[in-house]
Batch of 4 targets.
Target 1
Amino acid sequence: MNSFTKNNIEKIYITGEKKLTGTVNISGAKNAALPLMALSLIINEDFNLYNVPDLADTRLMSNLLIDLGIKINWKKGILNFNGKPIKDEASYDLVRQMRASILVLGPLLASKGSAKVPLPGGCAIGSRPIDLHVMVMKALGAKIIFDSGFIIGSLNNKGLKGGLINFPKVSVGATESAIMTAVLAKGQTKISNAAKEPEINDLANCLNKAGADIKGIGTSNLIINGVKKLNKVSHSVVSDRIEAGSFAIASSITMGNVEIKNINPKNLSEFINALRMTGTRVDIANNSLNVCCSKRPKPFDVVTKPHPGFPTDLQAQYMALMAIASGNTLIKETIFENRFMHVPELTRMGAKISINHQEAKICGVKKLKGARVMASDLRASMCLILGALSASGTSEIDGVYHLDRGYENLENKLTNLGAIVKRS
Ligand code: UD1
């Protein structure tokens, strides 16, 4: 396991005001690894994934797949998958812990012809419906019913067939569901208004290497010609742009100088633009960033949007930076309806923030002050870590098991950059 354990009572203590300096290596992206791992349900021989982050969520997905009958050998970031699913029912105890478990629905249908998946749980950042996943399955010929908390999918004797999918709303997960289900359907599937996140491109590229026929990768319009079978394949998970962005803010908020390695800067363009507008210097190299800041950040408004817009997964962290800006900032959240849960906790550190529906107004203060705070979800936890890194005194952050879901070796990485971090 990584250095974090899944203990709900653990806390992180951070003594702030240390400039972070040095180099940090970014891990593989959780949000790419999860759908890629689900491909093991449809790539039935010798499927290798490299650069898989060791996180609570990837361990959970691994357990879910093992429970379905997939053989997994996990060694230092490399996963080897073999075998076919032997059952079509996903474990309630595992699925309820992670919303991304819904990603097994399509591959199970494709592989077994039927699927029974409990309604998923996950972050408390909004109602997070699954109607678009269901729309995808129906468009590809599945019958879907809901019974006793389960989504139950079945196919008639013609199996999955290509179809037209026009998303009324951009959804990362539903686009991934559509891709994973359509690759083995009979005939052609056309997807419009698809999400274009780098993690989706990673999934589609891996599938094409395995023999799938997906065109339009990186655009909103995908055309998928179904194939009979997927072949063995090896693939390296794209690096985590959200982890990279979080470390960029860690450098900026502590007036540090950090080199962030193993990333594709193009995947972070809008975020880098915003950071530069706050006065942080960001030097871009081929697969790294140098982030350096020498004065208090300037305010700069952002609106979260689907990729290539400003990512919702960096909104909370960016708010920590704007909490100490030299003026007022507006941050508008357009993806999730309840993603300001970090605000009351940041306020405990002295931030001045008011919320009006989907918009937060942040009146920058000179300095945050260490406090006892409670993390409510994955990215909110990182927001509080960042606030604590810049604050005077020591902060005690509760609910840090959320961090274990998405940040690999966070304590070590921060300590190596000079932060004073302790977990107990
Ligand atoms: C993924 C990411 C998450 C990120 C989010 C948006 C993973 C594992 N998680 O989540 O970190 O914050 O993209 O970039 O990759 N929606 C519906 N019906 C559905 C599905 C979604 O209405 O069936 C709505 C959601 O409530 C939300 C919006 O669509 O308002 C976008 O959500 P979506 O892109 O699907 O997020 P996830 O795939 O769950």
Target 2
Amino acid sequence: MNSNLTYMHGVKSLKDIDVSGKRVLIRVDFNVPVDSHGNITDDRRIRSALPTIDYCIDHNACSITLVSHFGSPKGKYDEKYSLKKVSKRLERLLQKKVEFISDFESSKEEIASCSLERVFLLENIRFYEGEKQNDPELSKKLASICDIYVNDAFGTAHRKHASTYGIAECVPVKVAGFLMMKEIEAFSKALESPTRPIALVIGGAKISSKITLLKAVLQKVDKLIIGGAMSNTFLKALGYEMQGSLYEENFVQTALEVMDEARQNHVKIYLPVDVVITDSIDNPLNVKVVPAQDIAEGYQAVDIGPASVKLFSEAIALSNTIIWNGPMGIYEIDKFSKGTFKIANAIADCYAYTIVGGGDTADAVDKASESENFSFISTGGGASLELLEGKILPGFINLDRKER
Ligand code: ADP
Ligand code: MG
């Protein structure tokens, strides 16, 4: 159904090559969330890279150089965005010494001439201006310290940067790591050979950021379950007064078109029938549940209500493949998190293939303690969105392909 995924399936993976005695550079995604003290709050992304790193160690790679970005520094050193803390966590998880390289250019000789089995982690690659610009000079410099390039950074696979894209043009052998392959396999299971009915549960802040996705899935899914601020624009399109709710006036027409197209494609749309409203997000003393058409003046919709949870849960329970992208409300605030968490429970309880794409959605599932109960949780927010939209991710384009 989705030939772009088939195209990405065709790339060579680490399993298809011999790494023994070779210097391997792995682009990983160690862009982990941290708290206000800089402590790592979720190391899932580091743990997800371990199979690829371990494979290289177990198959006698001569050296392993890990490259990642962290946050969005402005092309220069900024202590706040240093990968040093990640280095320590990685060392613990890997149970092996990790040598942290603050400036790979001055340590180039050492990394490049390595004859012992060593693991290096380079400092945040976004400290180099050339990274985001996909500068060929930076790609060449990175290429000069390895014989094999492995891209395992699914979270940045939708970016055309020096370490995710350009480098692959300068290295003779370039393949995908195990996480990249796992992500592609999970999405193809949901999109290429799904067990019907398929439901897309969609929410989050805006239609505008997900409109391509909405249009792409209208050809594929059987049910579209819409919540979050995303549904506010749809409710507005139905003529409801949304008062202070977050919605996009410019996309009211788009919402009408989506509903129209869904009808033509026999896709069933589910919208909230009741909502949780408040007059203040920051100081939520006045919180009520009202029918979606009865939002009081001065109030805004911040979560789906219990009747909507019931309606959505029933539609979810009768699906065999469920794709979830976007929370049902402002789940970061306790009082407005119930809708999102109950939907997380409903999806987790299903005997279906269940997949989550979207950074905040993955975080919400984790907060609902349901991570273990989903079939697959993508490690890439933006990348998973682009996969669902049917795009080919740049991180796969320059990799070696299997003979057909
Ligand atoms: P994801 O990262 O999973 O793709 P998004 O980034 O699109 O999800 O959306 C998540 C954000 O949407 C959250 O920060 C959440 O607070 C916000 N959101 C959801 N529902 C509402 C609402 N009714 N009003 C305001 N913000 C909302
Ligand atoms: Mg988000």
Target 3
Amino acid sequence: MLTEESLTRMADFYGEQLVEPSSPYIAFAAKADGVTITAYKKETKGLHKVLFQGPSASYEAKVWDKLDKTPTRQDGLLEKAEEEFLRQPKTLLKWRDQIGSDEVGTGDFFGPIIVVAAYVSMGDTPLLKNLGVTDSKMLSDDKILDIVPQIIKTVDYSQLYLPNDKYNQVIRQGNNMNSIKAKMHNRCLLNLKARHPEAIVYQDQFAEPSLYFSYLKNEKEVLREIHFETKGESKFLSVATASVIARYSFLRHMELLGEQYRTHFPLGAGNLVDEFAREFVDEHGMDELNNVAKTNFANMRKL
Ligand code: MG
């Protein structure tokens, strides 16, 4: 049950997806991806019945239900509500041509930080689905090494890579992990948005949007039209694609770094890493860690 005001907003929102109502009792009907919407003219105590049908029905209904409970124009908070509404994952927005970004290496003592933004058009969706693209944490390294070469032949992406010596330097200059990530995401997204200005932009949220933008206050150019989503890699194909490309680059990079030192660097920041770090320092000296590890990590204190 939705208010008249929500009904109007809803009709506006579905715009081109509105279809011919099948009965005179229907205010409007719409057909979106995975859901059909039927809004009825009849009202009971100011509320209209709206029917959602299809695989995405409950999801879509929840989004509107939430909007209906947000402030109205009278109390001047509508803009805020609409801004929030835009941040909601909606099936409709989900299937627009989209750019998504994600990062890797931030929890690993050894190795660089890599941020990737990927552009996924509607036409790329079947290929990516077929390859099984999903949150990179759900995929084995072997699977990622297998599918990403096929993905990057088709999908446009932008990648930034921060090697360890540079990372350690910017940390000494007063950056923290979040400000580094914010600057890298911003740059990647700007690069890709310039090539695909029509795409909607998603980011796997790692900081509150206000905090994210505060990290960027000294940047020359900042992309502001971003839909932030925590767990974005499991909600949006573009973020999932960015996450697998980033993971792939990280794995390949660690392989090369290993070859350079004739070893295999362990990932993560656990006990195995501590043990390996001690051996590495014995062999190559403490200073060499600056080139292969994030020296502000707690692992350093155990050396
Ligand atoms: Mg992430």
Target 4
Amino acid sequence: MISAKLYIQGEWRESESDRRGERYNPAHLEELVGTYEVATIQETEEAVLSASKALKRWKMKAGPERGEYLFKAAQLLEHNGKELACLITSEVGKPFGEAMGEVKRGVALLRYYAGEGMRALGEVYPASDGPSLLYSNRVPLGVVGIITPWNFPVAIPLWKIAPALIYGNTVIWKPAEHSSLTAYRLMQLLEQAGFPPGVIQFVTGIGSEVGHTVINHPSINGISFTGSNHVGKQIAKAAVERGVKYQLEMGGKNPTIVAADAHLEQAAEMTVSAAMRFSGQKCTATSRVIVERAVLEPFTKLLVDKVKGIKVSDPMQADCFLGPVVHPSAQADILSAIQQGVNEGARIRAGGSLSSELSEGCYVNPTVLDHVKPDSDLARKEIFGPVLAIIPADDFQHAIAIANDSQYGLSAAIFTSDIDRMLSFLKHIEAGLIKVNGETAGVEPHAPFGGMKQSSSHSREQGRAAIEFYTSVQTIVISPAGKSLEEAEA
Ligand code: NAD
């Protein structure tokens, strides 16, 4: 059993509070995977101040030297990948195969940002007064608060922490309660990579206490958050109040359009994968499939047959497609959203219930509903579970209008073989991640990622895009000392 600690000022420690959080395996609720510390407000403040103290020396290090720590962390993560993937599966119920994929992505992210330490940070411009040197440089923000969700407990923290560190910031990291043990193990690997004390702080606990303290602390110079819209809005308000740079990636209600000319077998296969893998708990999961009426019947049949064929299984099994959801409260919320959909007039075509064979865990059968009205809660609210709504569209333009009729704009997909439909979709769809004949879920680690509308604060993460958030641009002019322009030119 894991007993996760806090990591402050280069030391592992227990909280002075007498509170501990517990993590039970969502696949076997009787199994206690471990406990984590519930940090106090004072401990959180101490962590912020420690990151503040470490900043001066860390930002003075050369980029390639900072990169060496990240290369070492990548090596350690790769070496311990299988063990960490097992922990992800035990703690949040992610199928083991997908957990291994996430760890590999974490390794790629660390290597990518280690390399960033050797790349240019600015540009030189022609100065209007000849001999002067005019250039831009990027400098770190300072101390960055990083607040992460539970569904990608390795990849999301790393795509924030690695760029923060490589560009010279120090970090205080608050992981989600549901993934505190995985976060602790990842933090242990980062510690073994040898970062100087204070460069990364790790504080677990309650979001409204630890997270709240981080976002409101006067020594925090930037906040990067991924999670729900409800919390994201509070962060935006706190950051604007203090004039602090912030970045939010939040929820989605991602549409897939199946056009009348789509390859229906491919569309059904990929829509099921995007909607149901990891029990629909990816922010980019498909939750609405909008189908042109001309192919509604054959597509629905293909889709429903495939969903009925999914075997719900223990996530440790190598071929698991759909395991449990993260927590009994999530299970209850998902079932209640399905019931609400039925109350609104939708019809269950597959699933809609708990798994009867796997009653020891938080399993929800993969669920498909049709007769879904575009303005119903089922079509509008994020459910974050294995639930897919089929919405008919009269024609292609109507399908795009339904897809865009949402407060969210994270990812979207279309299945078509018609170039005009594809081009029209690309022109009009309101989403940050767009796939043509592909799943709404799935992100490359080196390409920009983020949403539109209420899914995001409109910044982007990953790849070169991260430099925009984790640095400030300074414009610098250096002129010759003590000489007139004419003398300098001579
Ligand atoms: P959540 O908002 O409940 O929690 C996210 C983090 O915020 C946690 O670390 C939590 O402790 C912290 N927190 C809670 N209250 C806080 C407060 N008052 N002040 C500061 N921090 C606080 O989200 P979750 O349940 O962990 O994750 C699921 C959500 O995340 C879904 O909405 C999903 O769509 C979204 N998500 C988005 C992306 C993306 O890139 N767009 C990726 C993954 C998940």
